[in-house]
Amino acid sequence: MSAPELVIDALELADVPRVVELEQQSFAADSPWPASAFRAELNAPYNRYFAAREHPGDPVIGYAGISTLGIPGSYECEIHTIAVAHTHRGLGYGRALLDALLAVADAIDAPVFLEVRTDNDTAIALYERNGFATAGIRRGYYQPSGADAHTMIRPSASGRVGTDDAGGATS
Description:
The chain is α+β, with helices and mostly antiparallel strands and 171 residues long. It has a single domain, classed as Aminopeptidase. Helix content is 26%, strand content 29%. It has helices at 16-27, 35-43, 93-107, 121-129, and strands at residues 7-10, 47-53, 62-69, 76-84, 112-117, 133-138, 149-154, 162-163, 169-170. A hairpin with a 6-residue loop joins strand 3 and strand 4. The longest helix is centred in the middle third of the chain and has 15 residues, at 93-107. Keywords: Acyltransferase, Cytoplasm, Ribonucleoprotein, Ribosomal protein, Transferase.
């Protein structure tokens, strides 16, 4: 058996059943998304979803999604999810998925926003190593567990943090 590669490619509709399994394992306490939600996400033109696999064509062992919001010149991105199978954590798949998401944002010079459980130290450390800073807290964000979430922001490649109410860039 050969050593696993680190393959990041597009998440496809055919991957949804496996993604739902991983979603159940990773987020059982916090309303895991059903297959219909993933299909809707994959069909939305403003979203990009990626799959992590050990080898090309293998089953999904991790997945991640990002949306692009706004208009040219003032885009913002929001990370919807990143998850890796328990059996493959700590092997670089989460980092590779985050890199793919950040490449989407960097290509359009967009700041990136996300929410992460306040007790998910591993994810928080990954985000901080990649330029994210905590901007606030959302009490009881995750349901039904009631867990709190940090809101984190990573500025765009040019340093822009967001947009003002008139649609202009702010820093």
